[in-house]
Amino acid sequence: MKRCHLLTLIGLFVAHTLMAAGVDWYRWRGPDLNGISKETGWRSSWPAEGPKKLWTAQVGTGFASFSVSANRVFTTGNANSQDTVYCFDADTGKILWRHTHAHPLDPKYYEGGTSATPTVDGSRVYTLSKRGHLFCLEAATGKVIWSKHLTEDFGMKMPEWGFASSPLVWGDLLLLNAGSAGLAVNKNTGQLAWQNGKDICGYASVVPFQEGGVTRIAVLGAKTLFALDPQSGKQAWSFPWETKYDVNAADPIISGNQVFLSSSYGKGCALIEFKQGNVRQIYANKYMRNHFNTCVLIDGHLYGTTGESGQASYLMCMEWATGNVKWQERSVGLGALMAADGKLIVQGEKGELLIVQATPEKFTPLVRAQVLSGKCWTTPVLSQGRIYCRNAAGQVVALDVRQ
Asked: Alpha carbon 147 to chain centroid distance?
């Protein structure tokens, strides 16, 4: 009888563990590079005062998001003309290490500060600054393994608002949106593997995809979307995408043999289709205008913020196949979002955190709470039962949403 009771308890424990599965979020847009987490068992409701604040921190000015791996949280910020990479203990917020280097704030029509999100690859973390400082650091200690400078070492021209591509590890390569159409270095040494020109780049990160069983990478440049071979950088095809001020900042979203592109400054969006090197446009409209934060695609519908700084901006749901708008909500402003378990985790532009049902039927907020003040453009991150948020001034909050 006791043995049966023990087996029952073990079974319940295992079932609970499987249901409440935490997921490390070790790079920009998560393990699947789509802004959607497979994490389950997190609490999507909370009391009127909001979710419990586990810890807070100050990291300096910037808009970099968070990477979470092995109970460590990584992000970056700028203060006193220095960029700093921070590594926090996920439980306590204790600073485990920091790596600092001289770097101007570069506030041009906005607060300035850091842009790219750190990328964790096992025992290493990779970071890129706005002026092109590329670092490979020990994830446990912050010790520099190697460093390069995109402008000095590779002759890359810096775009108007600095380099913003979060590094992508692909095999032994580290891929960046830098130069005319991408750059790759050896992830172990920093030595150049390939580069396509040295002109200004776009601000989006590199996205891998499949075409006819062949791996490609999408690089959204300053004026063109390029599909490249990741090993050689050789171009498979391209599609023109010109935006005012060359601000192509939201990542391409790829589903099957279709690519969704979106930019602000009056540009709008388009759905294109590729097949055996041929590309055609399915539709284009000015509804979804992603200024810098990328949409998420769930069950045939895109969810994202549309608009631009200083103008009316909305959280919007748009049908992928047709471009038809299903709903829009102004209270979020020019915020950012990710998704998990069929829900949107939305950081409003003014610091309100919302959990919204991912449905095209109507805007359906489940719960909301004011968790920060000031400007909030950074994508929030859910990982291991915690939601991490920050504002432009560098105030970080870790919220406990474990069941």
From this structure: 23
